[in-house]
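Translate structure to sequence.
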């Protein structure tokens, strides 16, 4: 019931704004907020105290919870000499509420596997070595001490946020079911006056390492292919990443989020 009224409110907004001439036809930015971002499961590897293989805490104040202790650049750890392995990618986006208004001062937390497909979490102990389902090559899901694994960003006055990270590796979720999680980033959104929101974003783009395989994994993933999502909601979770000249050619993609 609630979802239906939400949808009709969005539809009304779209029609109303169009009729008023406030939205330029074909402006994807203007329409980007109209589709609610689909929720996805939190998963078992959220950074909680005593769960990391090796604690990464750039802010060592004991008052700061572990999941809030790191910044929005996951490609290195402050105080350590080295860079994370993997393809660097910038994820930028705008956070909107259900009325398409930007949400400032919201806290976004991301957590993800390293480029090897391993989380910094003691619970991620199964299948540390596994065979690539296509090539048969052995993949070692090794811990990367130079990767930050989780980070936080705060939206600015216009609801914008930015992260710099690496493309996570894929990993086996359930080998008996031949289920491999595609590269994905978990995200938790906390905004004053709104319920906490959890989702996952996925990747596409010709410049991604092994993109054809990644897209195959996307089409076979039980979470991304949840039949309760509309196709538009599914596509909104898949971020097209392309080289960005203004960032030395590193990959960049937009992940806009609309809360319900
Ligand atoms: Fe995951």
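Result:
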């Amino acid at each position: 019931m609630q979802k239906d009224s939400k949808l009709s409110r969005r539809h009304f907004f779209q029609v109303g704004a169009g009729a008023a001439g406030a939205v330029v036809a074909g402006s994807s930015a203007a329409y980007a907020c109209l589709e609610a971002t689909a929720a996805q499961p939190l998963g078992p590897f959220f950074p909680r105290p005593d769960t990391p293989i090796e604690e990464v805490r750039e802010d060592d104040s004991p008052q700061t919870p572990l999941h809030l202790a790191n910044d929005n650049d996951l490609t290195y750890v402050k105080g350590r000499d080295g860079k994370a392995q993997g393809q660097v990618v910038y994820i930028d986006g705008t956070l909107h509420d259900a009325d398409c208004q930007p949400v400032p001062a919201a806290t976004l937390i991301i957590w993800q596997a390293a480029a090897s497909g391993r989380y910094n979490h003691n619970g991620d102990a199964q299948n540390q070595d596994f065979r690539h389902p296509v090539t048969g090559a052995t993949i070692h899901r090794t811990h990367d001490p130079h990767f930050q694994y989780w980070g936080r960003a705060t939206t600015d006055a216009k609801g914008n946020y930015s992260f710099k990270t690496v493309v996570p590796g894929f990993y086996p979720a359930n080998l008996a079911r031949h289920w491999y999680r595609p590269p994905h980033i978990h995200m938790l959104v906390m905004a004053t006056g709104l319920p906490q929101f959890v989702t996952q974003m996925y990747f596409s783009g010709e410049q991604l390492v092994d993109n054809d395989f990644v897209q195959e994994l996307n089409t076979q993933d039980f979470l991304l292919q949840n039949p309760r999502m509309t196709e538009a909601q599914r596509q909104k979770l898949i971020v097209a990443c392309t080289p960005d000249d203004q960032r030395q050619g590193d990959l960049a993609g937009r992940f806009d989020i609309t809360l319900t």
